[in-house]
Specification:
Blueprint: E1 4-6, H1 11-15, E2 23-31, E3 34-43, H2 46-51, E4 63-73, E5 76-78, E6 86-91, E7 97-103, E8 113-114, E9 120-127, H3 130-133, E10 141-145
Parallel strand pairs: 1-5, 3-4
Antiparallel strand pairs: 2-3, 2-10, 4-9, 5-8, 6-7, 6-9
Length: about 150
Protein backbone atom coordinates (compact mmCIF):
# COMPACT_ATOMS: atom_id res chain seq x y z
CA UNK A 1 0.00 0.00 0.00
CA UNK A 2 1.37 3.37 -0.96
CA UNK A 3 1.71 5.90 1.75
CA UNK A 4 1.31 9.55 0.90
CA UNK A 5 2.48 12.42 2.99
CA UNK A 6 0.85 15.78 2.67
CA UNK A 7 3.78 18.12 2.97
CA UNK A 8 2.13 21.39 3.86
CA UNK A 9 4.84 23.87 4.76
CA UNK A 10 4.76 26.83 7.19
CA UNK A 11 7.15 29.30 8.87
CA UNK A 12 5.70 29.02 12.35
CA UNK A 13 6.55 25.34 12.70
CA UNK A 14 10.27 25.88 12.22
CA UNK A 15 10.50 28.68 14.74
CA UNK A 16 8.35 27.05 17.40
CA UNK A 17 10.24 24.53 19.47
CA UNK A 18 7.02 23.95 21.38
CA UNK A 19 5.51 22.22 18.38
CA UNK A 20 5.16 18.64 19.53
CA UNK A 21 7.34 15.96 18.05
CA UNK A 22 9.95 17.06 15.54
CA UNK A 23 13.27 18.24 16.96
CA UNK A 24 15.71 20.77 15.53
CA UNK A 25 18.97 19.73 13.88
CA UNK A 26 21.30 20.64 11.05
CA UNK A 27 21.56 18.73 7.79
CA UNK A 28 25.16 19.00 6.67
CA UNK A 29 25.73 18.24 3.02
CA UNK A 30 29.24 17.60 1.71
CA UNK A 31 29.54 18.92 -1.84
CA UNK A 32 32.42 19.37 -4.28
CA UNK A 33 32.26 23.11 -3.51
CA UNK A 34 32.35 22.63 0.27
CA UNK A 35 29.84 22.04 3.06
CA UNK A 36 26.23 23.25 2.91
CA UNK A 37 24.05 23.49 6.03
CA UNK A 38 20.26 23.37 6.11
CA UNK A 39 18.54 23.98 9.48
CA UNK A 40 15.83 21.35 9.76
CA UNK A 41 13.07 19.97 11.91
CA UNK A 42 13.53 16.20 12.13
CA UNK A 43 10.54 13.95 11.55
CA UNK A 44 11.48 10.40 12.54
CA UNK A 45 8.19 8.85 13.63
CA UNK A 46 5.18 7.99 11.48
CA UNK A 47 3.10 10.73 13.13
CA UNK A 48 5.80 13.39 12.60
CA UNK A 49 6.38 12.33 8.99
CA UNK A 50 2.65 12.41 8.26
CA UNK A 51 2.28 15.85 9.86
CA UNK A 52 5.38 17.23 8.16
CA UNK A 53 5.32 21.02 8.27
CA UNK A 54 1.57 21.42 8.00
CA UNK A 55 0.28 24.93 8.38
CA UNK A 56 3.50 26.69 7.30
CA UNK A 57 3.22 29.32 4.54
CA UNK A 58 6.78 30.67 4.56
CA UNK A 59 10.15 28.97 4.96
CA UNK A 60 13.42 30.76 5.74
CA UNK A 61 16.04 30.48 2.99
CA UNK A 62 18.16 27.94 4.90
CA UNK A 63 15.38 26.05 6.73
CA UNK A 64 13.71 22.78 5.84
CA UNK A 65 12.61 19.40 7.14
CA UNK A 66 14.41 16.06 7.35
CA UNK A 67 12.33 12.89 7.14
CA UNK A 68 14.18 9.92 8.64
CA UNK A 69 13.27 6.24 8.28
CA UNK A 70 14.63 3.25 10.24
CA UNK A 71 15.23 1.24 7.07
CA UNK A 72 15.08 1.64 3.33
CA UNK A 73 11.67 2.76 2.09
CA UNK A 74 9.88 3.59 -1.13
CA UNK A 75 7.39 5.92 0.61
CA UNK A 76 5.94 8.57 -1.70
CA UNK A 77 5.72 12.28 -0.93
CA UNK A 78 3.02 14.53 -2.31
CA UNK A 79 2.18 18.23 -2.23
CA UNK A 80 -1.60 18.29 -1.67
CA UNK A 81 -2.58 21.82 -0.55
CA UNK A 82 1.05 22.83 0.00
CA UNK A 83 1.40 26.52 -0.91
CA UNK A 84 5.19 26.57 -1.31
CA UNK A 85 7.23 25.08 -4.15
CA UNK A 86 9.80 22.73 -2.61
CA UNK A 87 12.84 20.71 -3.61
CA UNK A 88 13.46 17.32 -2.04
CA UNK A 89 16.71 15.35 -1.83
CA UNK A 90 16.55 11.64 -0.98
CA UNK A 91 19.56 9.79 0.44
CA UNK A 92 20.51 6.14 0.86
CA UNK A 93 21.83 4.19 3.86
CA UNK A 94 25.37 5.41 3.18
CA UNK A 95 24.23 9.05 3.32
CA UNK A 96 24.67 9.51 -0.45
CA UNK A 97 22.01 11.55 -2.23
CA UNK A 98 20.26 9.30 -4.76
CA UNK A 99 17.75 11.78 -6.20
CA UNK A 100 16.80 15.46 -6.14
CA UNK A 101 13.38 16.60 -7.35
CA UNK A 102 11.34 19.80 -7.52
CA UNK A 103 7.79 19.61 -6.19
CA UNK A 104 5.40 22.39 -7.26
CA UNK A 105 2.35 23.25 -5.12
CA UNK A 106 -0.75 21.18 -5.83
CA UNK A 107 -4.39 21.98 -5.12
CA UNK A 108 -5.85 19.31 -7.41
CA UNK A 109 -6.75 15.80 -6.37
CA UNK A 110 -5.01 13.57 -7.08
CA UNK A 111 -1.64 15.29 -6.84
CA UNK A 112 1.53 13.82 -8.34
CA UNK A 113 3.73 11.80 -6.01
CA UNK A 114 7.50 11.96 -5.63
CA UNK A 115 10.05 9.29 -4.72
CA UNK A 116 13.29 8.01 -6.16
CA UNK A 117 13.46 4.75 -8.10
CA UNK A 118 15.56 3.14 -5.36
CA UNK A 119 14.97 2.70 -1.61
CA UNK A 120 16.10 5.58 0.58
CA UNK A 121 16.39 6.20 4.34
CA UNK A 122 16.03 9.98 4.46
CA UNK A 123 14.65 12.97 2.61
CA UNK A 124 15.40 16.68 2.94
CA UNK A 125 12.84 19.29 1.96
CA UNK A 126 13.83 22.89 1.31
CA UNK A 127 12.61 25.87 -0.67
CA UNK A 128 12.57 25.04 -4.36
CA UNK A 129 15.98 25.71 -5.87
CA UNK A 130 17.92 25.45 -2.59
CA UNK A 131 19.94 22.43 -3.74
CA UNK A 132 20.65 23.92 -7.18
CA UNK A 133 21.70 27.29 -5.67
CA UNK A 134 24.14 25.52 -3.34
CA UNK A 135 25.53 23.11 -5.98
CA UNK A 136 24.15 20.04 -4.20
CA UNK A 137 24.09 17.04 -6.54
CA UNK A 138 23.27 13.35 -6.62
CA UNK A 139 26.23 11.57 -4.99
CA UNK A 140 26.85 14.28 -2.37
CA UNK A 141 26.71 13.10 1.24
CA UNK A 142 24.16 14.08 3.95
CA UNK A 143 24.63 13.91 7.73
CA UNK A 144 22.05 14.97 10.31
CA UNK A 145 23.69 16.65 13.31
CA UNK A 146 21.65 17.19 16.49
Amino acid sequence: MRRRFALVVSAVALAACSRGGATAADARISTADGPVTLHVRVADTDAERERGLQGVTDLAADDGMAFLFDEGTMTEFWMKDTPLPLSIAFWSGGGRIVSIMDMPPCTADPCPTYRPRVPYIGALEANQGFFARHAVHVGDKVAIVH
